[in-house]
């Protein structure tokens, strides 16, 4: 309880003393959340267009999640991965019903869900493709931070890290069919990709490309994996991003928004890829009651409140408002789907703009030096859009990103 009485300064000092330095964090301490807003320990309020990193799909501390956690925690928190529990069964039924997949495996993070998909792909290769083990992934992709998912990730900055990587990943540029076909060989067991690259700067895959990948996977009996960790469950304006394309994968991974902030992830597979045997994959916390109850409550709310539709509508409004800034400000290339949106600012200014907005009570994300990404909770309203645009516009003025300043 001692820390509750500490001043923000002493909290920050002890944070720097005791936490491993794995992230550049601003000198504030987040303390409370409600709906679209966060408050720090100094009482400053922030309109949240980062959404806990595309996680707090229902906003901060929503009643549906609070109630589910309170009820389930008084009933059963953890029984052991060696037993079935009721929320596990109910959530599995719900996810298979709404997704068009037959089977689900639960884990605790996006990386773990992708790790499961990688293992399932290798099992498929071992059983049905003569020991094929290579997985084709995309340049600029992001699949997580375990050693295998870092190896799958096509991020330039990851290349020199933690060598040697896990072998068996080939990276090809997104939307380049020739490059992908050239990479397919007897050793290929799977192709894995995001439908909108999130961490990579909000770049969507094109429909004809995806359709051609689906065809090739069918012809060669290669597993097609969509990493919908960021795009799934309403984020892009459909329940799943694959619905935009009319292309269904064999395996799909979900995490981030699935339980509104409680750590839960899922790997879904069609009947044909129900290939794991007992012992192949698991985890102490996977499918534990508390997380399953949280996921069930959050996904039910996303469906019942038609939040995918809200994401589509508010996303379109945000795109329109951002495009309206083109004339006066050095803003360009508004892109994305639903509430996974990006736009460009001049090289090097994105982190500066994000820091200025933070000072003025708006959280936005700069995935690289020239891109701003917006991923607010799916409950965002037109008033919240108006407030965001007002603070963003003031931020563009303050850091000198008016067209006059940039051109002169
Ligand atoms: C965030 C993310 C991951 C990793 O999820 P974690 O929960 O951080 O392990 C994987 N893939 C995509 C597309 C993501 O956006």
Please name the defining characteristics of this protein.
38% helix, binds pyridoxal-5'-phosphate, seven-stranded mixed beta sheet, alpha/beta, 408 residues
Descriptive overview:
This protein is α/β, with parallel strands linked by helices. The protein has 2 domains: 9-62 and 306-407, Aspartate Aminotransferase, domain 1 (Alpha-Beta Complex); 63-304, Aspartate Aminotransferase, domain 2. Helix content is 38%, strand content 18%. The chain is built from 13 helices and 17 strands. The chain has helices spanning 8-18, 51-54, 63-75, 86-99, 110-128, 147-152, 177-183, 207-220, 289-304, 307-323, 350-359, 382-398, 403-407, and strands at residues 30-34, 37-40, 45-48, 103-107, 134-138, 169-172, 188-193, 196-197, 203-204, 223-227, 251-254, 265-269, 332-337, 340-344, 362-363, 365-368, 371-374. The strands form 4 sheets. Strands 4-12-11-10-7-5-6 form a 7-stranded mixed β-sheet, with helices on both faces. Strand 1 (30-34) and strand 2 (37-40) form a beta hairpin. Helix 3 (63-75) packs antiparallel against helix 9 and helix 4 packs parallel to helix 9 (289-304). The chain is globular and about 60 Å long. Residues 109-111, 114, 142-144, 194, 198-199, 227, 229-230, 255-256 line the site of pyridoxal-5'-phosphate (PLP). Pyridoxal-5'-phosphate binds next to helix 5. One of its GO terms (molecular function) is transaminase activity. Its main location: cytoplasm. Pyridoxal 5'-phosphate binds at residues 110-111, 142, 227-230, 284. It is found in: Cytoplasm. The modification N6-(pyridoxal phosphate)lysine is found at residue 256.
């Amino acid at each position: 309880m001692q820390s509750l009485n500490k001043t923000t300064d002493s909290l920050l000092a002890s944070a720097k003393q005791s936490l491993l330095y794995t992230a550049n964090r601003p000198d504030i301490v987040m303390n409370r959340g409600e709906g679209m807003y966060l408050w720090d320990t100094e009482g400053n309020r922030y309109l949240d267009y980062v959404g806990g990193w595309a996680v707090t799909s229902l906003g901060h501390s929503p009643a549906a999640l609070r109630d589910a956690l309170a009820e389930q925690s008084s009933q059963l928190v953890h029984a052991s991965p060696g037993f079935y529990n009721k929320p596990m069964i109910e959530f599995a039924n719900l996810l298979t019903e709404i997704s068009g997949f037959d089977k689900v495996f639960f884990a605790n993070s996006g990386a773990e869900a992708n790790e499961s998909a990688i293992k399932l792909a290798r099992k498929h290769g071992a059983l049905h493709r003569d020991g094929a083990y290579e997985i084709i992934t995309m340049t600029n992709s992001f699949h997580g931070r375990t050693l295998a998912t870092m190896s799958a990730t096509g991020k330039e900055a990851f290349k020199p890290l933690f060598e040697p990587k896990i072998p068996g990943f080939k990276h090809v540029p997104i939307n380049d069919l020739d490059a992908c076909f050239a990479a397919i060989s007897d050793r290929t067991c799977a192709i894995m990709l995001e439908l909108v690259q999130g961490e990579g700067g909000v770049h969507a895959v094109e429909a004809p490309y995806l359709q051609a990948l689906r065809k090739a996977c069918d012809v060669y009996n290669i597993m097609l994996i969509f990493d919908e960790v960021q795009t799934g469950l309403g984020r892009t304006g459909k329940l799943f991003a694959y619905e935009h394309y009319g292309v269904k994968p064999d395996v799909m991974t979900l995490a981030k928004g699935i339980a509104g902030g409680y750590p839960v992830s899922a790997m879904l597979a069609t009947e044909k890829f129900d290939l794991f045997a007992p012992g192949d994959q698991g985890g102490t916390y996977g499918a534990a009651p508390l997380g399953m109850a949280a996921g069930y409550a959050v996904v039910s709310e996303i469906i019942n409140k038609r939040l995918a539709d809200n994401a589509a509508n508010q996303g379109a409004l945000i795109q329109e408002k951002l495009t309206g800034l083109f004339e006066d400000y050095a803003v360009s290339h508004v892109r994305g789907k639903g509430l996974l949106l990006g736009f460009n600012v001049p090289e090097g200014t994105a982190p500066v703009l994000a820091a200025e907005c933070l000072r003025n009570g708006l959280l936005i994300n700069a995935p690289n030096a020239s891109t701003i990404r917006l991923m607010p909770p799916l409950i965002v309203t037109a008033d919240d859009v108006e407030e965001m645009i007002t603070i963003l516009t003031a931020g563009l003025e303050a850091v000198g990103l008016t067209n006059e300043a940039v051109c002169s």
